[in-house]
Every structure is written in structure tokens, then in C-alpha cells.
Design brief:
The chain is 1% helix and 57% strand. The chain has two helices and 46 strands. The protein has a 22-stranded antiparallel β-barrel.
């Protein structure tokens, strides 16, 4: 019988979680350097090369574009990167009807992505590192090299997606602040000389959506451009307890235009981007425990609009021996929100500027490198009329970093790196809590990685990396808050792993074990209507990651991943409530087990009809807690999805699909609203069936 956490409390200890029971590519050998009589040639690393695609004529998605990683901010085969990396191509996501960033935990193990209160406040947990406070994410999001506002987890994946790449573990050396869990890198296809058109239409029991992308040369061999438009309307699954009306609908509109100047054969590549996203929703509904199966939401006003404008300029110049790049980004978001009857609008503007100098791996030098300078400015304001409070702050971040890879031999690499961050947060409050404070943070983030190639297909590596979450000023300020600042969080990570890719490209494996410790862990504490950050002591996370992509025979592919994680408070301390001691408790939103698998089989139809590609996917998430006291949470559950894609040609694919086949009832967020309401929850999406049509030229 399905029941939310918190049900049946009379039969359990008051601090125990009430669990819901589930019912339910190969590389050529490296050529030898020619011998010279007068000196020994230095050993040169091999230029990254993709294995020959094995599925080009089978109807299965070809993963050749995903063999290049941006983890080191320079092109590199992902198997040569001495760290944990997960990569999925745009075509692979399309075959499973994955349309938003929040869907990615269906393909990456040791990852939990769930809406918390709204999809705008989506929480991502990687290797147990969870951002319980929305304003301090533990995973950074980058699109085409530009860092994104944390609100980006609410957005749709862009059309023209080339690949999504997850860098596991702390990435402080190259990516800086708030990447203690990892980095999500999204890469899109740049406009070029080849005209390209892509369209996608989707209809299901809960959703109607359409998107188009058109790309073409404006001046052949010199100037190119593209335009993308998207729309999605999603029906809510909640019912108003008072009026019995259907509620929870969401509308999502987005657009993007890009202009690229890149003369063929020239050293210059400049691209300008402008985009806008608009979301209107009343999804932010809360359900009391007795009404979960009926999805009856508590009758209090909850709705929001989210408007985000994004602009970017990426420019690079090829010096021959290296490439110098400039990445400039600006985002302006307005979040007009009422939740549970409480009106809390906020605005944020973010400006980023980064300069990098990266070696060219095609030169096969004994040493490769990347150096960079980074600056970010954030202006934020939040208004809470109910508490007669307005808070604002300006944050300036500065950083310098460098990383080198010494190819000691053709098998052994050593990669040290170091970053220095300095940040100043200047904030004030007006209202019942009036203040004017400044908080500075600085950190050195070192890294060292060792990689050894046992054979051409098989590598082993060891890694020490660090992460840094700066101190700052509380953004959600309520009456009675004695301190509005908190200190930096520092994370040390140790990892060992191995990667394997068979010579024919049909088998690709990755296994890793990790252990990390976070000091002065930043935790969101206090009542749900007035949560704020405090440093809560020490946290340890340790675990194992396993992934596999296998084609046991032609036309059949299996991808699978398993994450085992143990994340606990080893020294808990809340200075505001010294009597609390949650030492030994599990971190919120940190499941011990995550697993996913997908099976695809391409059936040739003959008679010029192309291929039919049935697929079946499974995702498992073990129990999680929604609070540090481990009293409210969600038991483990399994989600199943399936579909059938017809590909009459390389340009057309039509799919029918079913998601959450068993109509599993599960919660994604919950808290105790106090007497007389009690625990309230938000629910995951139920079963939905639909169809989609994709056309590309």
C-alpha cells in the first residue's frame, strides 16, 4: 500500500521515516615517433579521437559527438579525463522524451533532481552534496561555456542540443564557487555553413508543446545565424480542496537568437546570443497526508511568473600554439511569487566575465595547460510584505586559476591545478530587521590528478580535488534573526577510478569510489516560512559510481548506471539551537541508492520504411529525507518508462511513449506546517502517455 512519509506515525517512533512501500568506440593505435640520431624525441600525447560509430546504420542514436569533454576547458576525449564524467547526447535524450534539465537524473547515476516547492526552485543532489538552500547551489550549470542563474533548472533543454555532460565531484579549481557537487555542462550545435532545420511537437495527456530551430549561413564562409522558439503547456494534476477545480497548470515560452562571425580558415570565432524565457504557473501546491492519493491541494493562493532575459558574447582567437577566449554573460530574472498565501517577489541580475588561455591538444605537446581570470557581479533584492521586510545585496567575485597536464610518458599523465577566489558580499535590510553588513570570503582550491593507461582501451586514475561555497548574507530575512551572515564551506574530495572502452566501441565502462569531507557545512535551518543559512558542522560523503554502455549485438544497446552513497552529519552544530544534535543523521535529499537503465533495440522494417526502435527505461531512487532531523521524507520507489520510435529516414522520427507506467505515487518535497495543518507534500508526476514528432534537415 502506498502512503507518504509521515503516515502511520502512531505505529512508529516520532523521528523515524515512514517509508512508502513500492509495489510495483575505438581508437587507432598511437603512431611511434620517428627516431633521430641526434636526440630523443619528447613523448607526445595523442590527439583526442572518437571511436568509429557502431550504430550509424542501425537506427540507434550515435554517440560519437559525446566523446569530447569540456571538463578541462579544452577539447579532450572523456576517457582521458582523470575524473568522473557522464555524457549523454541530444539524440539519446530525444528518444526518451526528455525535455528539461530536471529529467537528467534518469540517465546519470548518483544524481537526484526534484522540484522543491516549484520547478524554479529545483534541487539537484550529486554524490550526496545537496543544496537545501536554493540560493546556494552545489552544482553549477553552464551552457556553451557561460554560467547560468540557478533558476535554469526550471528551463527546457535547448533545441540543437549536442550533449549534456555532468562532471562529478568538486570542480573548484576550474569552475570556482558553488560547484562542490559538480558541474553540468550543456553544449549546443553552433550555426555554420550547413543550413539546418529542426522541429519537435509533443502531445500527451498532460502536455502540449512545440519547438523549432532554423540555422543558416548569412554570408557563406563568414557569417551565420540561428533562431530557436519553444512553447510548452502542462496541465496540473492537483485538485483544489475547496472548489474541486483542476489546478497546477504551467505555461513555458522561450526564444533564442544567435549570430556567429567565424571566417573559414581564420583565427577568429565570435558568437552573440540573446534569449528570453517566460514561465507562468500555479504548480506550487501542497497536499496534506490523508489526501495524497486524490491529489487534493490545500486551498491557499499559490502562483508565480518567472521571466529570464539572457545575453552572451563568446569570442576566441587562435594563436596557433594556443587559443585565447573571452566569455561574457548577463542574466536578468524577475520572480513574482505567491506561495501558501505568502507574497515574496524577488529580482536578480548577474554579470559574468571570463578570460582563458588554453593550449591546442592537436599540437601534441609534452605539456597542456589552461589559465583563466574570472569576475562575477550579482545584484539581488527580495521583498516580503507579510514580514514588512526588504533585503538586498551586491556580490562581487574575483578569481584566477591555472591547470597543467604533464604527459610524463605516452601512458602516464600528471595534472596539478590551483585557483584563488575572493568574494565580497555587501547587503542591507529595511523593515522589522534593519541591517547593513559586509562579508568577505577567500579560498585556495588546489587539485592533483594522476592518470595511467594500462592499455589503449583501459585507464586508471586517482584524484584529489576541492570545492568552495563562499560565505555570505542570508537572503531570506525574517524578524528575530540574530545573525544575517554565515561562513564559507570548504570541501576536500578523494577519488579513484577506472575507465574502459573496447576497441570496436561497443563497450564503455566507468567505475569510481570517492570520499569527501565538508567543513562548516552550509545548511538551511529554521521554520519553512523563514529558513536561513547556518554553518552546521562537518559532513562526510562516500560512495561508488558504476556506469556501462554496451552493445552486446548489432541493433541492441543497453545503458545503465548505479550510485551508492552514504552522506551523514559527522559533527552537527546549530549555534541558534545548541540543544539540537543531528550527528549521524543522513543529509536531506541524499539517497543512498540511485539506479537507472535503458534498453533500445532497432528493428529494420525493410521496404524503405526505415527502423522501429522500441525502448524501455527504469529509474530507482531509495529513501530520502526532506529535513536534517530525518522525520519527514519519502520511501524508495521505481519509475518505468517505455516508447516506440519509428525512424523512416535520418530526418524524421515519430514516437509514442508512456512515462511512470505504474502510476507510482511519490512525494518530492514536504515539511510540517504545524497545527492544525500538519505535514504537507508536493507530488511527482503520475502516469502520462503521448506522442512526439521530430523533423530535421
Amino acid at each position: 500500500m502506498l502512503a507518504p512519509a509521515g503516515a502511520g506515525a502512531q505505529e512508529q517512533a516520532p523521528t523515524a521515516l515512514d517509508k512508502i512501500e513500492v509495489t510495483t568506440e575505438a581508437k587507432p593505435a598511437k603512431p611511434k615517433a620517428p627516431k633521430k640520431a641526434k636526440a630523443v624525441q619528447p613523448i607526445q600525447p595523442k590527439q583526442p579521437q572518437a571511436p568509429e560509430p557502431q550504430a550509424a546504420n542501425t537506427g540507434l542514436p550515435v554517440d560519437a559527438p559525446a566523446t569530447t569533454s569540456t571538463a578541462s576547458k579544452r577539447p579532450q576525449d572523456r576517457l582521458d579525463v582523470p575524473a568522473g564524467i557522464g555524457v549523454v547526447t541530444g539524440e539519446e535524450l530525444a528518444t526518451r522524451n526528455m525535455a528539461s534539465i530536471s529529467d537528467l537524473d534518469r540517465v546519470f547515476p548518483d544524481v537526484n533532481i526534484r522540484s522543491r516547492s516549484t520547478r524554479a526552485y529545483t534541487n539537484i543532489t550529486v554524490r550526496g552534496q545537496s543544496a537545501v538552500d536554493f540560493y546556494n547551489p552545489t552544482v553549477g550549470i553552464y551552457i556553451d561555456g557561460l554560467p547560468q542563474d540557478q533558476i535554469s533548472f526550471a528551463q527546457l533543454l535547448p533545441l540543437g542540443l549536442e550533449q549534456a555532460e555532468l562532471l562529478y565531484g568538486p570542480q573548484g579549481t576550474l569552475f570556482g564557487r558553488n560547484t562542490v557537487g559538480g558541474v553540468l555542462n550543456i553544449t549546443t550545435r553552433k550555426p555554420g555553413n550547413e543550413a539546418h532545420f529542426e522541429s519537435l511537437a509533443t502531445v500527451s495527456g498532460l502536455e502540449r508543446g512545440a519547438a523549432v530551430l532554423a540555422s543558416a549561413p548569412i554570408v557563406k564562409n563568414v557569417l551565420y545565424g540561428d533562431v530557436a522558439l519553444g512553447y510548452r503547456a502542462e496541465d496540473g494534476e492537483y485538485v483544489d480542496m475547496a472548489t474541486m477545480a483542476d489546478i497546477g497548470d504551467t505555461k513555458d515560452r522561450s526564444g533564442r537568437v544567435r549570430l556567429r562571425y567565424a571566417p573559414t580558415g581564420g583565427p577568429v570565432d565570435i558568437m552573440l546570443m540573446a534569449g528570453r524565457s517566460e514561465i507562468e504557473s500555479d504548480e506550487e501546491r501542497l497536499v496534506q497526508q490523508p489526501f495524497i492519493k486524490r491529489r487534493l491541494a490545500f486551498p491557499l493562493p499559490s502562483h508565480y511568473t518567472l521571466e529570464t532575459d539572457s545575453f552572451g558574447v563568446t569570442a576566441s582567437y587562435d594563436l596557433g600554439f594556443a587559443k585565447v577566449s573571452s566569455l561574457t554573460g548577463y542574466q536578468d530574472r524577475k520572480f513574482d511569487r505567491t506561495v501558501f498565501g505568502d507574497y515574496t517577489p524577488e529580482d536578480q541580475e548577474t554579470f559574468n566575465q571570463e578570460f582563458t588561455l588554453a593550449s591546442d591538444p592537436r599540437l601534441r605537446n609534452p605539456v597542456d595547460y589552461v589559465f583563466g581570470l574570472y569576475f562575477q557581479n550579482i545584484d539581488f533584492e527580495r521583498r516580503t510584505p507579510f514580514h514588512f521586510q526588504t533585503t538586498s545585496q551586491a556580490i562581487d567575485s574575483y578569481a584566477a586559476y591555472g591547470e597543467v597536464t604533464w604527459h610524463v610518458t605516452d601512458r602516464f599523465d600528471v595534472t596539478p591545478g590551483l585557483r584563488y577566489d575572493y568574494e565580497v558580499a555587501d547587503g542591507g535590510g529595511v523593515g522589522v530587521n534593519t541591517f547593513d553588513v559586509e562579508k568577505t570570503s577567500e579560498s585556495w582550491s588546489p587539485k592533483i590528478a594522476l592518470s595511467y593507461k594500462l592499455s589503449e582501451p583501459w585507464r586508471v586514475y586517482g584524484l584529489y580535488s576541492t570545492g568552495f561555497k563562499p560565505g555570505g548574507i542570508v537572503r531570506s530575512v525574517t524578524p528575530g534573526l540574530t545573525s544575517v551572515t554565515y561562513d564559507p564551506q570548504l570541501t576536500d574530495n578523494f577519488e579513484v577510478g577506472t575507465k574502459y572502452r573496447s576497441r570496436d566501441g561497443r563497450i564503455e565502462l566507468w567505475a569510481a569510489a570517492y570520499y569527501n569531507v565538508s567543513d562548516d557545512y552550509q545548511l538551511s535551518v529554521g521554520p519553512v516560512t523563514g529558513k536561513y543559512i547556518r554553518n552546521a558542522g562537518e559532513v562526510e560523503s562516500k560512495g561508488i559510481n558504476l556506469t556501462a554502455k554496451v552493445e552486446p549485438w548489432e541493433n541492441f544497446r543497453v545503458t545503465a548506471g548505479l550510485g551508492l552513497n552514504d552522506s551523514t552529519f559527522t559533527k552537527y552544530s546549530n549555534p541558534d539551537v545548541p540543544t539540537q544534535n543531528f550527528t549521524g543523521n543522513t543529509l536531506p535529499y541524499a539517497p543512498e541508492v540511485t539506479a537507472n537503465a535503458n534498453f533500445e533495440y532497432a528493428v529494420p522494417l525493410g521496404y524503405g520504411l526505415g527502423f522501429a526502435v522500441p525502448h524501455f527505461g527504469v529509474t530507482y531512487l531509495s529513501e530520502i529525507y526532506f529535513d536534517e532531523s530525518n522525520t519527514i521524507g519519502q520511501g524508495g520507489y521505481t519509475l518505468l518508462d517505455a516508447g516506440l520510435t519509428w525512424k523512416p529516414s535520418d530526418n524524421v522520427s515519430a514516437e509514442i511513449f508512456v512515462e511512470n507506467i505504474t502510476d507510482e505515487i511519490y512525494t518530492t518535497y514536504g515539511f510540517d506546517a504545524g497545527f492544525p495543518i500538519g505535514p504537507v507534500y508536493q507530488l511527482g508526476q503520475g502516469r502520462t502517455a503521448g506522442a512526439s514528432l521530430r523533423i530535421t534537415y
